[in-house]
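From the shared-data thread, chain only:
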Amino acid sequence: MNVARQAIKRGGYRALWRGFLTNQTGVIPAHSVYVTGLEWSKQHITRAANNWGCKPGTSSHIGSFIGGATASFCAQLVRTPTDIIAQRLMIQGSKGSQTTYQNGLHAFQTIVKTEGFRGLYAGLGAAVLVSVPFSALFWSSYTTLKSHIGHSMTHAAAFSAQVFGREEEIDIEVTQTAYFRPPFGIWEAVVFSSSAFISSCVALAVTNPIDVVKTRIQTKAKTGRTAEGGRLAQSGAGIIQHLISIVKFEGW
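Structure, as tokens:
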């Protein structure tokens, strides 16, 4: 909330939407690449795992893990340039920003002129180290949790029906492959939403440290809470240097 108040104070409520159009220019095609890569790689990897003799459930988990990682890597190549431009637009006017940009096109031209095309992919390594593990962990965890939570809810529904004598109202088929046949549609939504929520928490907890480093590298601003953090951000330091500095001067 403090960051939002400062942004509004500097540039009005429009500051909260600074970089929005630029960001969407990269987000829309990146998501198209992501979904296409996810579905294509999941199908082929799952089929290959089945041919190697893996069990159907194991094949699905392998496909989700590798498919998510592959899709995220491909999408990051598309999204990183516009992500960098959008972040520069978002932080301009703050204490740590170095340059003032008129719009997304001006930011693109300025970055290419002063940093070269490599500037549009600054922090790509850190971005990949964030997005690829996140996507792989999310989809593999989601597939596993959806199955386990669904089975648990199926048995809970069946037990509830027996207790209250309402078996005739519920059409549930409990098998080893069916994850959930809900007595009410909302129960199915609970399975999906709870699985997604837990999976996101797990993936975020693992990848958040690198995400902090990625933002500092890409914005090249004094975003650290210490003078050392700001110096590293502007000097082009690598991932390991940033991590060591954060732990040493700012703690875990």
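The helical segments are 2-11, 20-51, 56-91, 104-115, 124-164, 185-219, 227-235, 239-250.
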